[in-house]
Design goal:
heterotrimer; A alpha+beta (474); B alpha+beta (272); C mainly alpha (317); B: 272 residues; alpha+beta; Immunoglobulin-like; C8orf32 fold; four-stranded antiparallel sheet; C: 317 residues; mainly alpha; 15 helices; globular
C-alpha cells in the first residue's frame, strides 16, 4: 500500500527534529560506517544462532529453525511515555483477571447487562470445568501479553490481549543481551531501564500462586509440548533462567491428591505448573482423550486444590476478539476507573447495523477472524485488490459472527536499518504483565517491526522482525 | 421406588500395564427425584485422591494404580430411593449456565439432515410450549433412528447415526442433543442406570438427554424408550456428550490390549 | 534431576561410546582383510565383525555379499543400521538436543559439529573416502566430545549419569571386540598360537589404540593369555573390562552418595566387580573365552537394566 509519509507518526522525530530520546542513537548510526554495520549485523545473527533462538513468535508455525530478523536500531520510550503505558497495562491485566474471576463465578457483568451472555457461554474458550472454582489468589491469567500500537505522540491503542500463554518474551530478553554485548557504549550514554529482572519476577509470580495445600517452598515447573514445538527454545530458556525444571507431560503423573514429577531421586511433588500447552491438551481424562502432551488426572488435582495451572484452563475466554470490544467496559465495571489505554474502534459483523457499515466501507477497513491469530485470515482493505476484497465480502456474508472489522490505523514507524541506511518501518509492542500476589511489569517489551516498506503486518511469519525496546530512566 | 444397583467393571490387560490412571464419575448426586440411601465404589488396591464436585454437580474422583497391573476391577453398589418427577431435575446443585450447553461437540454436531429433522419436527409448533417442542424432538429421534444394538460404536456421531437410521441409547441421546441445538435449546448428555423390569439382566446402564425448558429447568428425555425418566431411572452424571459424561475415563500405555467386562444389575426392592 | 533428563544424558554417552566402537570394529575388519587368506577353513573376517556388532542378519538381508565397500557403507553411513556410526552420532545428538540446558555449550558444539561433519562426509563421493580416514575421524570426534565433557561439565548427578553410560557401554563394547577374535578362531583350535593368530591379536590391540601400551606392560613373547589379561583384567588399561566396571562403579557411587541412599545398581556393579577382580586369565580360558565374555555381557546388561529402573524410568516403586 502507499501512504503519505506525513500521516505516519515517526517515533524518532518531532517535526523535522530528532527527539531528545533518540539523539544518541542518531549520532550512533550516523557514525557507524556501512561495513561496520554489516559486520555487526552478521555478528548479531551469529549470536542468535549460537544460542539457538530460532523459533516463530506467537505460535505462527513455519520453519522452527528459521531465524527471525533482528533489527539493531532500538526503539525508545521516554520515562513519561512508559509511565502511562505501565499504568494502562496493569489496569487492563487487572480488569481481565477480574472478568475471568467473575464469569467463572456469578457472572455479575452479564447480570448487569454489560456483556451478552452468549459471547461467554457459547465461546469455545469458556471452560465448563473452570466454573465454580477459585484458583489461588483468584488469578486466572498470570502472564498477560498486551499488543499495542501507536498512532501519534500521545496516542496508543490496544490491538489485542493475550491471556493464555503469550510467547516472545525470550526475544525481549535476548534482544537486550545482544545489544548490550555489541554496543556497550550505548548503554553508558543512555540510562536504559533493565529488563533482566523478568525471570525472577516470573518465578516470584508463579510461586505466589501456589495452592493452599502447599506448605513449603513451592516447586514450579514449565510444561512444554516438547522439543518439536516452535517455541521450545523459549520454554527451555525460561526454565533455565528461573532455575526450574522443564517438563513434558510424560515427566508428570497424578497419584493421590497431588501431581508428581519423575526424578532420579524418586517422585517429587509439583505445586505450580506454568503450562505452555493449550487447554484441550492438558488432561486427556478431562479434555481431548487423544492428547499425548498432557497429564491424565491433572484437572482433578487442580480442582481439588492440589496444584495450580498457569494460566488457568479457560483463561482464553477473556482474549477473544469478540470479547475484546468489552474490555473498556470491564475496566469501568470492575475497577470503577476510566480506561487508560484505548481500544481500536471495532465493528462486530454479527450485529446488523455494524455489519451494514462494514459492508459499505470494506476497502478502508481491516477485517479479522474472531478466533484467528498470527495475521492469517486477515484483510487489510487499503492494501488489498478488488478481488480479494470481494472474496472477503463473501466470507463475511456467509458467517458474519466470525468476523470483526477495525479502521486501518496509521501505525507509528521507527527508524530501521535498510540497505540504504535507515528508514522508517511500522512497529507494534507487546509488553508482558505478570499477575500474582502483585502485578509486575518490566519496563519494555517485544517490538515487532514490519521490515517491508509500507507494510503494516509485523508478524514474523509474514516478513516481520524484532527490535530491542528501551525505556529511558528519568 | 427403592432401587439397588450393582455395577462391576473389570479391565484385564494382555500385557501388564505400567500403570493406570482413571477419572470416575460413579457417585449419583441427591436431588428431588433420587435420594441416595447408600453407595460405595470400591477400586481394590488403587490409590484414591483428588476428589471434588464439578460444576455440573457430579462427584469426580481420580484413582491411580502403580504398575504392573494386569487387572482392574471397579465395583459400584448402592441403594437409591427414587421418585417420578416426569424427568424434571430439581434441587440438583450445579453452577454451569444452561446456555453453555448450546455448544456442540464432534459427537453432537448437527449436519444438514439433523437440522432438517429438527425443523420438520417443530413445524407448526412455533407457538407451542417449550416442553411440547422438546417432546416433539424426542419423538422425532425415536422415529428416525431404530433401536438396533451393534450397528454403531462408541465414536459414532449423531449425524452418522441418523444417516444409518439405527443405533442405541447413546446415539439417540446424541441425536436429540443435536436436534435441540439446531432449535437453540440447551441440551446435554446424561449417563445413569435403568431398572428395566423383571429381567434384571436387561440393559441396565443407560443414557438419555436433558433439555433445558424455561420455567422447568433441565428435563430428561429418553428418546430410546419414548418417555421421560421416572422412578426406574438413576441419574449418575452429565456432560456435552457420551465422552464428556463417561462414568469411567482411563488412560493406558500405548500398545496394551485391554479387555472390558461390564455387568450391571438394577433391581427393585421387592425383587430381592 | 528429572529422570528423563538423566535418561537422555546416559544414552547420549552410550551412543557416543558405541559410535566409537563401531569405528574400531571397522578398523579391525579393515586390517584383518589385509592379512593373507590362508585356505578355505576360514570364515570371512567381516562376518565376525558384523556378528560382534549384532547386525549380521540385517546386513545379509540388505546387502547379501560381504563385500568390504558394502560393509563400510553399512557400518558407517547406513541409517537403517542402528549401530552405524551415523546412527549412533545421530542418536547421541538427538539425546543431547533435548537436554541442551543440562550440557555446556562446548559439549553441545562438539556433538553438533561431529554430526554436521559426518553429514558432510555422507555427501562426499565414496571413492574419495578412505576407510582409515573415516575411522580416525570418528575417534577424534568422540575424543573431542569426551574432552569437552571432562573439562567443562559440572560434577553433578548429570555428569555421573553420563559417566555411568560411558562405563556400561564401554564394558559391553570391549567384550564384543574381544569376542570377534573368538569367531575368527572358531573354525579350528589348531590356529591358536599360529603366526596368523598373532597378527590378528595385534590388530585387535591396534584397534583399541593399545598396541604400544601393551608392549610396555607385557615384555617378551606375545601370548593370548597376556592379551586377555591386558584387555580384561588390567586396571591400567582404560578400556579393559575391569577398568570399565570400576568407572561405572565410581560414577554410581557418586550418584548414590549425592542422593544420600545406596541403590540396587551399586550392589549390582559391586557384584560384577568382585568377581572380575578375583578372576585370573587361567580361569577365563578354562571357562572358555567366549563363554566368559557372554556371561560378562549378560551381567553388564543386567546392571544397565537396574540403573534404568532405579533412576531413569521415573516410575514410583
Amino acid at each position: 500500500m502507499t501512504e503519505r509519509d506525513d500521516l505516519v507518526f515517526n517515533e524518532m522525530l518531532n517535526g523535522a527534529e530528532v527527539r531528545a530520546a533518540y539523539e544518541s542513537l542518531e549520532r550512533w548510526h550516523k557514525s557507524m560506517p556501512d561495513e561496520m554495520r554489516t559486520l555487526k549485523q552478521s555478528e548479531a545473527e551469529n549470536l542468535f544462532k549460537r544460542v539457538g533462538i530460532t523459533f516463530a513468535v506467537y505460535g505462527e508455525g513455519g520453519d522452527p529453525e528459521r531465524l527471525i530478523p533482528f533489527d539493531m536500531f532500538p526503539r525508545v520510550f521516554t520515562d513519561s511515555e512508559w509511565r502511562k503505558l505501565d499504568r494502562g497495562i496493569r489496569q487492563r491485566a487487572a480488569a481481565l483477571n477480574a472478568f475471568l474471576a467473575d464469569v467463572y463465578d456469578r457472572a455479575e457483568i452479564v447480570r448487569a447487562g454489560r456483556i451478552p451472555e452468549h459471547l461467554i457461554t457459547r465461546n469455545d474458550a469458556y471452560e465448563k470445568a473452570a466454573i465454580g472454582f477459585r484458583p489461588p489468589r483468584n488469578v486466572y491469567s498470570h502472564i498477560v501479553g498486551i499488543d499495542l500500537v501507536r498512532t501519534g505522540a500521545d496516542q496508543f491503542f490496544v490491538l489485542e490481549d493475550n491471556c493464555r500463554t503469550p510467547s516472545g518474551v525470550s526475544y525481549m530478553l535476548q534482544n537486550r543481551e545482544i545489544m548490550m554485548r555489541m554496543f556497550p557504549q550505548l548503554f553508558l550514554e543512555n540510562r536504559i531501564a533493565p529488563v533482566d529482572g523478568y525471570a525472577r519476577l516470573l518465578k516470584k509470580t508463579l510461586a505466589s500462586v501456589a495452592p493452599q495445600k502447599c506448605d513449603s517452598e513451592p516447586t514450579v515447573v514449565i510444561l512444554t509440548p516438547g522439543q518439536f514445538n516452535s517455541a521450545y527454545y523459549e520454554h527451555s530458556f525460561l526454565a533455565d533462567l528461573m532455575g526450574v525444571e522443564l517438563v513434558e507431560g510424560q515427566d508428570l503423573f497424578v497419584e493421590g491428591d497431588f501431581v508428581w514429577m519423575k526424578t532420579t531421586e524418586g517422585p517429587r511433588k509439583v505445586d505450580v505448573i506454568y503450562r505452555r500447552i493449550d487447554d484441550a491438551f492438558i488432561d486427556p481424562l478431562c479434555f481431548r482423550p487423544d492428547s499425548m502432551l498432557g497429564v491424565p488426572g491433572l484437572m482433578s488435582v487442580y480442582r481439588s486444590g492440589g496444584v495450580n495451572i498457569c494460566s488457568c484452563p479457560g483463561a482464553g475466554v477473556a482474549d477473544d476478539k469478540a470479547i475484546y470490544t468489552y474490555v473498556p467496559e470491564m475496566i469501568r465495571f470492575y475497577l470503577g476507573e476510566a480506561p487508560i489505554l484505548e481500544n481500536v474502534p471495532t465493528w462486530q459483523c454479527a450485529r446488523k447495523d455494524e455489519f451494514k457499515y462494514v459492508m459499505e466501507h470494506l476497502p478502508e477497513l481491516v477485517v479479522k477472524e474472531v478466533h484467528g491469530s498470527g495475521g492469517y485470515g486477515m484483510l487489510v482493505g487499503p492494501a488489498a485488490d478488488t478481488s480479494t476484497i470481494e472474496l472477503f465480502r463473501q466470507k463475511i456474508v456467509e458467517n458474519p459472527s466470525n468476523y470483526i472489522a477495525q479502521p486501518t490505523l496509521s501505525l507509528s514507524a521507527c527508524p530501521t536499518f535498510v540497505d540504504a541506511g535507515i528508514a522508517p518501518r511500522h512497529v507494534d509492542l507487546r509488553p508482558y504483565c505478570l499477575v500474582g500476589e502483585t502485578i509486575e511489569l518490566v519496563p519494555g517489551g517485544l517490538t515487532r517491526v514490519a521490515l517491508t516498506e509500507g507494510s503494516l503486518v509485523v508478524n514474523s511469519s509474514q516478513g516481520g522482525g524484532v527490535k530491542d525496546t528501551w525505556v529511558l530512566a528519568e | 421406588m427403592r432401587l439397588s444397583v450393582r455395577h462391576v467393571t473389570r479391565y484385564s490387560f494382555d500385557t501388564p500395564a505400567r500403570g493406570l490412571v482413571q477419572t470416575h464419575k460413579l457417585i449419583p448426586s441427591t436431588c428431588a427425584s433420587q435420594n441416595i440411601l447408600s453407595w460405595t465404589v470400591s477400586v481394590g488396591d488403587a490409590i484414591r485422591g483428588a476428589a471434588f464436585r464439578d460444576s455440573a454437580g457430579d462427584m469426580v474422583e481420580t484413582i491411580s494404580v502403580r504398575g504392573p497391573v494386569d487387572e482392574m476391577v471397579i465395583e459400584v453398589s448402592g441403594e437409591v430411593e427414587t421418585t417420578d418427577l416426569y424427568g424434571v431435575l430439581r434441587n440438583h446443585r450445579e453452577t454451569v449456565p444452561p446456555t453453555t450447553y448450546l455448544r456442540s461437540s464432534r459427537l453432537t454436531r448437527a449436519d444438514t439432515a439433523l437440522r432438517d429433522l429438527s425443523a420438520s419436527a417443530l413445524e407448526g409448533m412455533e407457538d407451542d410450549s417449550a416442553l411440547n417442542r422438546a417432546h416433539a424432538l424426542a419423538r422425532a429421534v425415536n422415529t428416525a433412528i431404530a433401536y438396533v444394538p451393534g450397528e454403531t460404536e462408541e465414536m459414532t456421531t449423531a449425524a452418522e447415526a441418523l444417516s444409518g437410521a439405527k443405533g442405541v441409547c447413546q446415539d439417540h441421546s446424541h441425536a436429540l442433543i443435536a436436534l435441540a441445538h439446531a432449535a437453540e435449546i440447551p441440551a446435554r448428555y446424561v449417563a445413569g442406570y435403568l431398572h428395566s423390569g423383571q429381567d434384571a439382566t436387561g440393559e441396565a446402564s443407560h443414557a438419555w438427554a436433558e433439555l433445558f425448558v424455561p420455567g422447568l429447568g433441565w428435563v430428561g428425555f429418553d428418546a430410546s424408550n419414548r418417555c421421560c425418566p421416572d422412578e426406574r431411572y438413576i441419574r449418575l452424571c452429565s456432560g456435552y456428550d457420551a465422552q464428556d459424561a463417561a462414568p469411567i475415563r482411563g488412560i493406558l500405555n500405548a500398545g496394551v490390549e485391554e479387555h472390558l467386562d461390564v455387568s450391571v444389575a438394577v433391581m427393585s426392592q421387592h425383587q430381592q | 534431576m528429572l529422570s528423563r533428563t538423566a535418561n537422555h544424558l546416559y544414552w547420549m554417552a552410550r551412543y557416543i561410546e558405541r559410535a566409537e566402537t563401531t569405528a574400531r570394529l571397522l578398523e579391525v575388519g579393515g586390517r584383518n582383510a589385509l592379512m593373507p587368506d590362508i585356505g578355505g577353513g576360514f570364515r570371512n573376517d567381516w562376518e565376525a565383525i558384523l556378528r560382534a556388532n549384532g547386525t549380521l542378519e540385517m546386513f545379509n538381508d540388505k546387502y547379501g555379499e560381504t563385500v568390504q565397500r558394502n560393509i563400510e557403507t553399512f557400518l558407517f553411513f547406513d541409517s537403517d543400521n542402528p549401530s552405524s556410526v551415523l546412527s549412533c552420532l545421530n542418536m547421541a545428538r538427538e539425546n543431547a538436543r533435548v537436554v541442551r540446558t543440562a550440557l555446556t555449550s562446548s559439549v553441545w558444539d562438539a556433538i553438533n559439529s561431529a554430526y554436521q561433519e559426518l553429514k558432510q562426509f555422507q555427501r562426499t563421493e565414496r571413492s574419495k573416502l578412505e576407510l582409515s580416514d573415516l575411522t580416525e575421524w570418528t575417534l577424534r570426534a568422540t575424543s573431542l566430545i569426551r574432552g569437552c565433557i571432562e573439562t567443562t561439565q559440572l560434577r553433578n548427578d548429570g555428569y555421573h549419569f553420563m559417566g555411568s553410560g560411558f562405563g556400561i557401554e564401554r564394558g559391553d563394547n570391549t567384550a564384543r571386540l574381544l569376542d570377534v577374535k573368538y569367531y575368527v578362531l572358531l573354525p579350528s583350535v589348531s590356529y591358536v598360537g599360529s603366526g596368523l593368530d598373532q597378527s590378528q591379536w595385534v590388530t585387535l590391540l591396534r584397534s583399541m589404540s593399545a598396541h604400544r601400551a601393551f608392549s610396555w606392560s607385557y615384555p617378551g613373547e606375545l601370548t593370548a593369555a597376556k592379551i586377555a589379561d591386558f584387555l580384561i583384567l588390567n586396571r591400567k588399561f582404560p578400556r579393559s573390562l575391569l577398568s570399565a566396571v570400576y568407572q561405572t562403579c565410581d560414577h554410581l557411587d557418586h550418584i548414590g552418595r549425592g542422593y544420600g541412599s545406596v541403590s540396587p545398581s551399586q550392589a549390582k556393579v559391586r557384584e560384577i566387580l568382585a568377581e572380575l577382580a578375583e578372576a585370573g586369565v587361567k580361569d577365563i580360558f578354562e571357562e572358555g573365552l567366549h563363554e566368559f565374555l557372554l556371561r560378562f555381557m549378560r551381567q553388564n546388561g543386567e546392571l544397565a537394566h537396574t540403573v534404568q529402573e532405579t533412576y531413569l524410568q521415573g516410575t514410583p516403586t
